[in-house]
């Protein structure tokens, strides 16, 4: 069968995704981009405070969030949908303490989890089984993200940030960065 150029062009009514799903996926793309910028800003704050382990870890995490965004973007392209990158608000740039900063990260990851769950609900309700299958990776990823940052907060509480505690916390979080993306805290002891 020979395809002509006109037969390979996707028309609006031939999209694989509903307009509601396209809008929600676009919102998620933009949230992932904001997450990357947030973690990059936090990395800069840590570097400014001489918390190099935390700075490296958060810089790597910013890269990971961009990879999440690219994965969504690729899915949009595969389905013939147009991804729309919106203007982003500036992330906060000053934090009262390392614990406050990681508390904000944990809260942000809980928000991302809620948004992923809303996408899953929409995909299940439509039903859009292809998108539902695609989103399962994000469901598992968000479980790991929340566990990771809750565990970091638990370790901050356990070790403390007084005296040499801040140094030890920075060292332990720096070890997470050196594990090249490991989501477990088995290296924190």
UniProtKB/TrEMBL annotation:
InterPro entries: Ferritin, Ferritin-like, Ferritin-like_diiron, Ferritin-like_SF, Ferritin_DPS_dom, Ferritin_prok. Fe cation 1 binds at residues 32, 65, 68, 109. It catalyses: 4 Fe(2+) + O2 + 6 H2O = 4 iron(III) oxide-hydroxide + 12 H(+). Its main location: cytoplasm. GO terms for molecular function: ferric iron binding; ferrous iron binding; ferroxidase activity; identical protein binding. Fe cation 2 binds at residue 142. Its EC number is 1.16.3.2. GO terms for cellular component: cytosol. It comes from the Bacteria. One of its GO terms (biological process) is iron ion transport. It is found in: Cytoplasm. Gene3D superfamilies: 1.20.1260.10. It holds the Pfam family Ferritin. Keywords: Cytoplasm, Iron, Iron storage, Metal-binding, Oxidoreductase. Residues 15-160 form the Ferritin-like diiron domain. NCBIfam families: PRK10304.1. Belongs to the ferritin family. Prokaryotic subfamily. Iron-storage protein. This is Ferritin. It comes from Thermosynechococcus vestitus (strain NIES-2133 / IAM M-273 / BP-1). The lineage of its organism: Bacteria, Bacillati, Cyanobacteriota, Cyanophyceae, Acaryochloridales.
